[in-house]
Structure formats: structure tokens, C-alpha cells
Amino acid sequence: MSWSVLLVFAFLTNALAQANFASVTGQVVDPKNAAAPRVVLTLKSPDTGLVRSTLTDGQGLYQFTAVNPGDYQLQAEAPGFQKQVRDLVLTVNQTQRVDFALQIGTNTQVVNVEAAPPPLRTNDATVGELIDPTLTAKLPLDGRHVLDLATLAPGTTSNMSMGVQDGSQNQLYWRPGQGNEFNAAGNRANANYYLLDGTTDTDPTFWTLSFSPSPDAIQEFKVQTGSYSAEFGGAGGAQVNIITHSGSDTLHGTVYEYLRNTALDARVWNASKVPHLVQNQFGASLGGPIQKDKTFFFANYEGFRFSNQVYQVDTVPTAAERAGDFSQSGRMIFDPLSSVPNPDFNPAMPVSAMNPQTVRTMYPMNMIPASQISPVALGALRHVPLPNLDMSGDMGMGMGMGMAPMVSGGDSNNYSDV
Description:
4% of the residues lie in helices and 35% in strands. It has a five-stranded mixed beta sheet, with no helix packed on it. Strands 11-16-17-14-15 form a five-stranded mixed beta sheet. It is elongated, with a radius of gyration of 33 Å. With 418 residues, it is mostly beta strands.
């Protein structure tokens, strides 16, 4: 059982962290291809009403920094020239170059470029992939683990090896809702570094994704596998830069429920019945304005409830062993309170487990006297079930947790637990 809540308030103020922002830069020239100084550049967000303006310098250059990713309109305007408008889509940690070539005309004439090919990244040499809102919202995700989409980036892979150092298993698997890890550019999975809205989201112990937001809370994220810029580099693997949704002037939200249930599942061919399973993954998100064009909110909640039936074979003490009788166990039982000299002790060799000075004596007939059985142990055994499997004919060897050898016999692997 787990739950998570994400609440974001977006204020249009200067921010310190730059890794999750975008920027726009470029040059404005006149019809003779000469630099056009003091041209007014205006960047406007249709979603939030954000308006920022700047002027070109003596070389016709301009720049907008620390811009939240999203849809924008960029306008270039100068006296005696036609106004030009470009529609832009800015993504996380993107530096987009947009150049303008002014045309002579009145400022009432507008050249609006509504569609343009995707811009080339000419301002950085980053190798990676942007996982945009279309992918996070539309692609099916097993368990709604957004990090599974990271393998869409070139040079990444997800495998089934156990352990974050050499495979894909997140070491925080005990946290319900945590996704798998991935390998990038030949690095181990624990070489990846994670950012959430410009803040470290990397678990300091296992170097995995610490908090995995709901897909409905994530706007987009970028996976950089090489040649990333100076603000990155907390680790030598992939840099995963996640940004969350923010509110806008329009109220919007989602409500969802994903259900798995025994009544909907099929029985496998060799099972007598369908094992019990009930899994609910549900939540809602809502974003909108607090003060139009100035302050916004976005909230997301996701709950996860999981109940299933698991079969395993355990070992519990037999009725005879509870009374101190280990004569059928196949192992010698020694008195922990006894100590006699070891007749095989070699004084020329160091004292060790293989060369002890003293040894303990074996209980006669492998039976512990009732006076030496702890009443605390007897009280605890009242809560331990008796065997329900007959393993008297099994004297082989089995494998336990971690592939460790496990002795099998009449008093081993004798309880079927559900």
C-alpha cells in the first residue's frame, strides 16, 4: 500500500536552478543581411499570459533565459518593418535558436509562421532524447512507471539482471510504485543521475530515482546520455531531467482508475484456481489559476492498493521437536552449556573453528531435557503452526533464498503457507 501527493505552485519569479528551464536565442538582420539593433523581441505564453521583452544588441543578437518549457509565441517588431511572429515549443533544458530576417513594410503587416520543421540543436552537442507530453500521456505503461520510457533514448537498455549496479532492478523495490532502472551508454544503472524540477531526485544510498511522480504530474523529461553541459554531471551515466506540470489560466484536470482483479483474470493451464489478486491504482490531478496571468497551481494525488495470494513452502518445528525430541532430524544436537577438552586439538596450529580447544557434548539420543527448554520459546511456538506436509521420505538437498543450500528431510520444507 502506498500513496503519493505532488503539489506545485508556480510563481513567475526568477529561479535559481537552470537545468529544468529552456532558453531562446538568435539574431535579427535587415533586408541587406546586416545586424538590426534595438529590435523589440516579445515572448508570450498563451497558457499563462506570461510576457517577456528584450532588445537586440549592436550585433542584432538577443536571448531569453530561464523560460519554463511549453508553447510560446515569439514576435520581432521594429519601426518601418513588418512584424514577424513565430510559434515555438520549448522543451526542458533546450536552447532554441530562432533568427529573423526583417522585411520592409508597415508595422500593421504581420508575417506569422505557423508551422516550421523541428529545429536542429545547433547550440549544444548533447546526445539524448526528449520524452515529450505526447509520450508520457499516451503510451501504455505497466504499473505507470514513467522511467520505463527512458529506454526510448539512444544508447539505453533495460535488462532483467538483479541489482542496480549491473541491471535494471531498482533497489527501492520495497517502495510500491518504484519503477525499474536502466543502463545508458554502457554504464551501470547506478551511474544515472536524476533531477526533478531542477532539484536532485537521486537516492543518496542506492543512486536510483528517489521519488517517481505520477505520469499525470509529469510534463516531460529529457534523458541525456553524453556531452551534457556543465550544470549536469552528478554521475557518469545518463542525466534524467524531469519537470512537472504547472497550472495555467485554464482549469484542467484528470481522474483515473486502473483495476486488476481476480474476477477478471484467467486461470493458467496448470492451476486449479485463479490466485487472489486485487490491484487498484487511482488518482486525480487538477491545475488552474489562482490569479489570472500571475499565479497558478497544480496538484496531483495517486494511490496504490495491492493485495495478492502467494504460495510458498516453509519449515516449522514438528510436534516431537517442540518437546525436545530431535531423534528424527538427521542431525546431532549438542548441549550449549557443556564444554570438554577437544581430544583432536593440535597445539601447533592456531585455534580456529577447525581446531577448537574445547568441544560440546551431544545430547543422548538427540533429545533435549525438558528442564533446558526455555518457557519463552515454548510460548512463542504456540503461535507457529504445525507441519501440514509429509516430507518423511525426502532426504535430499534443496535451494533456499539466495541460492543457499537448504537441507531437506522429514522436518524440513514441511509447511505449505498461503
